[in-house]
C-alpha cells in the first residue's frame, strides 16, 4: 500500500486532452477528508450515553465485574457482569473509531483509529480524556485515513485529501464528495 | 440453526440502567482481561500495542499519560498475549516471542514459523496454543488448524501437536480444557497432555470469534451476541446468559 501523488505530467495530460476529460477532472468523487481539531475536540467526542443495543460486535474485555463489548468504530458497551446470568447494561461509552481497549486501575487505553485515547473511567457516567497520542500509528498512518475506512471503501483506489500539518492535529476523517484530491492509496 | 439464540434463559439487553459510579471502579486495582484477538495488552506497568507492522511500547508510570518508549518494525501482526516475562505475538507467518525483562525494550528471542495464516495465540505453562485460519483475505492460502507449541525453552519453540479444524480463531483455556472458536462451534479439548489434545465435545455457537475465560465462567463473542457459560468440573459448558444483538 503506497501513498502517491498523481504526477503533474499526468494531470496536465488530462487537462489538455479535451473538454470532456476536463469536465471529468472537475467532477466530484467520493474521497476522505481530514477533520482537524484540538484535544478539547477529542474530549468532546468521548461521552457516556445510555445503554444501546449491540449491533456491529467487536472485541470483548473484562475488568473486575465489568464486561466491555466493542461496538466496532463507535465505542464500548459497558455491562455490570457481577451476575453472569444477568449482565446489566450500564453505559455506552462513545469512542469514535474504537476497536481495541485495555484497562489498568481506572484508566482505559483505547484506540481511535486516529490515535490512542487515555480515558479516566472512575466515574463511568463521566469519562474524562486525560491524554491523546498518535505515535503508535507510525508516521505514515498518522497522515492517512484509518485502516477500517480504507478497507470498507468500495474501490481499490482510495482517494483522500492530502493532510496539511499547518492546520493542526487530525481528529477524524470524513467521507465526502470533493474534487479529485492528489493523495490516494491503492488497497 | 441458531440454537443459541433461542436459549430461554437469554436476557435480551434490557433498558434498566444501574448507577455507573459504583459498579466497577470501587476497587480500581489491577488490569483487565482481553480476548485472544486483542492488539492491546498491559504487562509490567507498560502498554504494548501490536499494530500490523510494528510493536509499540508505552510506560504507564503516569497512568493518565502513557509515555512512548520504543517501537520495533514487524510484519503481519494480528494479536498480542502477555504472560509473566514474555509477550507472544500472533502474526501471519508465525508466533513471535519477546522477553520483557526490560519492558521498555522488548527483546525478540524467537519465532515459531508456520505457513501464512491468521492466528491468535495464548499460553499456559510451558505450552502455547495457536490457531491458524485461512478464511480472511490476507490468509486465503493458509490452513485451518490448532498448533500446540512447547515453549519451555523460549528461544527454541517446537511444535508438539497439530489438530485440523474448520475455521478456528479465538481461544481460551481453563485448567486442562482448551476452548477454541471454530466456525459455528466452541470446541473443547483436553490438554492434560498438551502433546495429545483430545477432542471432548463441541458446543454450537454460530459465528463464534473470541473467548475470555474468567475463573469458572467462559465468555464467548459471536456475530450474534455475547454468550456466557459456566464451566463444569469436566469442562462442559452450560449457558448462563446471552445478550443478542439487534
Question: What is the fold's blueprint, element by element?
Answer:
The complex is a heterodimer of chains A (187) and B (246).
Chain A: E1 3-5, H1 8-17, H2 19-25, E2 28-37, H3 39-45, E3 47-49, E4 57-63, E5 66-71, E6 75-80, E7 88-94, E8 101-104, E9 107-111, E10 116-120, E11 128-133, H4 138-142, H5 147-152, E12 157-160, E13 169-179, E14 183-186
Antiparallel strand pairs in A: 1-14, 2-13, 3-7, 4-5, 5-6, 6-7, 8-9, 9-10, 10-11, 12-14
Chain B: H1 20-23, E1 33-34, E2 40-43, E3 46-51, E4 54-59, E5 67-73, E6 77-83, E7 86-91, E8 94-99, E9 107-113, E10 121-124, E11 127-132, E12 145-150, E13 158-164, E14 168-174, E15 177-182, E16 185-190, E17 198-204, E18 208-214, E19 217-222, E20 225-231, E21 237-244
Antiparallel strand pairs in B: 2-3, 3-4, 4-5, 6-7, 7-8, 8-9, 10-11, 11-12, 12-13, 14-15, 15-16, 16-17, 18-19, 19-20, 20-21
Word description of this protein:
The complex is a heterodimer of chains A (187) and B (246). By secondary structure, chain A is of the alpha+beta class. Chain A is built from 5 helices and 14 strands. In chain A, a hairpin with a 3-residue loop joins strand 5 and strand 6 (75-80). Chain A has helices at residues 8-17, 19-25, 39-45, 138-142, 147-152; strands at residues 3-5, 28-37, 47-49, 57-63, 66-71, 75-80, 88-94, 101-104, 107-111, 116-120, 128-133, 157-160, 169-179, 183-186. In chain A, helix 1 packs across helix 2. In chain A, 40% of the residues are buried. Chain A has a 5-stranded antiparallel sheet. In chain A, strands 8-9-10-11 form a 4-stranded antiparallel sheet, with helices on one face. Chain B has 1 helix and 21 strands. The longest helix of chain B is centred in the first third of the chain and has 4 residues, at 20-23. In chain B, strand 2 (40-43) and strand 3 (46-51) form a beta hairpin. In chain B, the strands form 5 sheets. A 4-stranded antiparallel sheet of chain B has the order 2-3-4-5, with no helix packed on it. In chain B, strands 6-7-8-9 form a 4-stranded antiparallel sheet, with no helix packed on it. In chain B, strands 10-11-12-13 form a 4-stranded antiparallel sheet, with no helix packed on it. With 246 residues, chain B is mainly β. The model of chain B is unreliable at 1-23 (pLDDT under 50). Chain B is 2% helix and 52% strand. Chain B has one helix spanning 20-23; strands at 33-34, 40-43, 46-51, 54-59, 67-73, 77-83, 86-91, 94-99, 107-113, 121-124, 127-132, 145-150, 158-164, 168-174, 177-182, 185-190, 198-204, 208-214, 217-222, 225-231, 237-244. The chains are: A alpha+beta (187), B mainly beta (246). Chains A and B meet through strand 4, strand 5, strand 6, strand 7 and strand 8 of A and helix 1, strand 1, strand 2, strand 3 and strand 4 of B.
